[in-house]
Each structure stands twice: as C-alpha cells, then as structure tokens.
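We examine the record.

___
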Amino acid sequence: MALNPNFKEPTASGLLPVWLLCIGLVLIAAWRFDIASNLPLSVDEAYYVAWSKSPDWGYWTKPPLIAWAIGGARMVCGESIACIRSTALIGFPLTSLVLGVLAWRMGESLKSACLVAFLFVTIPLSSFYGIAATTDTFLLLMWSTAMLCLWLALQGRFWAWPMLGLAFGLGMLAKYTMVVFGISALLILLHPQWRSHWKTWGPYLALLVAVVVFSPNVVWNLTHQMPTFQHTANITHGAKSFGLYWDSLASFLAQQVLIGNPFLVFFFLLAAFRYAKSAPSAQTWFSLSAAVPILWVICGQALMTRAYANWAAPAYLGVCLLAVSHMSASSRKIWLSLAVGFNLLFAVVLYHYQALVATPFHLHGTAASDPFWALRNWPKINEQVAQELAGNLPRPAWRIASEDRAVLAQTQMSLVLRPGQVLGWQRDPAPENHFEQHFPLKSDTTETVLLVTKASRDDVLQAFPKATWIREIRADQMPADALVFQLWWLNP
C-alpha cells in the first residue's frame, strides 16, 4: 500500500494509456534507428568508441560510463553505427518510462503519467540527442532513476535509499553534472513533510553508496594528473574571462525554450510563479526542486562564461512533471495536444530536413542550414585514408598517427582499428588527449606509419627527418567547413 494518498493502483481496464505509450515508444525507437543508422558518427561519438576499446575507470575528458556502455553494445551487436548509437536509442525510452512511473507514483493518473513519458521522449532535446551516443543519455537515465528512488524513499521504502545512492554514483560516472542532483535532493529534504528523514539512516546510507560507486573514478584521476576534472573545469570556463555576458545568457535561455518545447516551458514557468506565491504541495516542491537548481546553475554559468544548450538537460525531467500536471486541468488539455504536436513536427523537420527543407528551397549545407553539418565531411576523409593504407600495407600493419584527436577517433572507428593502431603525435609538453596519453607516437618509430596532419612541412621533417610527403586529402561536402590534411609516410 503506497503512503502517497494520491497514488492509485491501476485496473486492467485502465491500462490502455500504457499500451499506447509502449507502442509509441517502439515506433519512435524504430524511426530513430533508421535515422541514426544513416548518419556518420560525430567526433565525440567516435572518440567514445576509441575509449570503449581500452576499458578503464576514467578517460581524458569524461567519466567512464559512456565508454563502458558502448563497449557492451559492441560486444553484443558489433561495430555498426546503429549498434554504437543503440545506447541512446534504448536509453531515452528507458528514461521516459522511469519518468512516467515516477509521475504515476506521485499521484498522476495513468493517462497523465504516460503523457509525461511521451512528451519527454519527444521533446526537441530528446529528438536531437536521442539518436547520438552521448554522455547525456546516461546522465538523464540515472537522474530520473535517482528521482524515482528518492520519491519511493520518501514514501517509506527504506531499500530505495541505497538504490538512490547507486543511481547517484552511476550518474557521476556518466557526467559530473550529476553533482547538481545533490542540491535538488537537499532542497527536497528541506520540505516540512520530509525533514524528519534527516533523523534516519537513509540519506547518509545513500551518500555512502554514491561515494563508494564514484570513488574509483576519483582514484583514477588522482593517479593520472586529474585530466577529467581539469577538462571539465576548462570547458566550463571556456575561452572567456569571467564577467557578465548577457548575450550569452539570452542565447542560452532562447535555446532552452526551443529544446524543452515552448508550451511545456511556458506552463512550467506559469506553475512555478503560481506556487511561488504560496506554499507548494510536496509533489510540486519535488518537481520544482528537481528542475530549478540545474537551471539556475547553468544559467549562472551562461551569464559568467558560456553554456551549451544541453548542459541543463536534466531540468526537463522536472519540467515535464510539473508542466503536464498543470496542463492536465480540463481547461488546458488543448495545450497538451499542441505540445505533442510541436514535438512531433520538430522531429519530422529535424530527421527529414534534407527532403523537406534543404532540397525544395535549394539550400546549400552550412552550419546554419544543416542540423548535422558537423558529421558530413568525415566519411570522405576516412575513405581517402583507407585507400592510402590499403594500397601500401597489409591490413594488420596499418598504423595511423595525427596530432588531431578527431582524425584518430574517426579513422579508428571507420576502419575498425585496434588500440595501438592509432597513435597520438604529442606536440605540446603534456598529453592533450586519450591517444597521446596511452598510445603516443615515438619519434624513432620502428613501424611504417601514415601521418595525417595539418602541420607544416618544416614541422613534420623536424620531428621525423625520414618522413615522405604523399599528397593532400580534402573533404568539402560542407565547403564552409572543409577538412584538409596532409598525408606523410613515417618510415622506420
């Protein structure tokens, strides 16, 4: 028996929304599978694939969960792009299901809970990142799981406290942004209805479990000169000095309205302002506390330096919960239909942009006119590198080197090379990426290596006097962002 008085057990005849949700999730997953299978991997995705071939407790720029997941996927279904992206193709529907269960346990009807799940899995944020193997997939899955575990713990399920710690620790192994969930949990436990839990072992047990789960990554960083922590600090700071960048904040807020669905964002804000004037219920406080801290933190970051649109992604778990609850009032149900329609329209345009927009309007691909512009040029580069290697060396002897981690990640993924077949040319005093750290190119190499570089002729010959220039390779499907590299043979 649930302790939440608003929670109602479903009847067999009331399960239609659940079946409709499951059908919708399957159709969306199949749609995204088709789209994801036909898009080249981004540089970051290919980089994560490289990590997955060298299992560890940490990596140069991110914690290890994304690499572990991709490694597991590769063991199950191979090296295809669809297989690698299955982490997102499965992860986002799972997150939506967890969020739907949470909404139901919080007292929403099955219909409203299923709407919460469906709206989250189709918001523009999910449509864009739901086809890419990124750290956000597991951040969102662990964040939603932590929310569900915390709610169940607050309803008297003591076993949910260690499960909360496990979800929190795994979330930290996915992306360090998960630390902000700790602020949300603290605020939730400050509600008068739940303050008594501070006098129990539950919260402290959850914290202990989280620390134990996350600690191997801390140890890894301590023994590797803290690369992940340093990288996180660097991208947080960016190239700007600290100040007040109002244009950056305005741009970030505009992006949030788009990726979170304007209707959902509006009704979330409406509900938040409404409850700011009076003491909110425990359920409302929970949803607000799940969303507001991460929004405030990233807004502050956008104001002081910079912030990317997806950095506040976990906020939309709470946004969907509160907005749907507020919109479910009989006088506002039309807005739910509009919200669903907006999500689906955005997905159609995003996934079929070339056929629906670019071709009819004769738009040439640029960063401004193609949502996947950053992916377009790499296949041709990978193809030219493969042709050069195949014409000169047997496949087991293929070795590629570069100072550019993008080249190494893309070629290793495309050519299905083993760790050690791609080598990082370290040109700075300290390693700058995974390849330079673990697979450095030696100046006195004993193997024939194909160097793919943007370095000048003088720099290459100074480092490798026996090097032989081959030719220039170019990929300009996106002319404004053409890729141009020089090929050299490095001889023993």
About this structure: The mean pLDDT is 91. The first strand starts at residue 400 and ends at 402. Residues 5 and 304 are 44 Å apart (CA to CA).
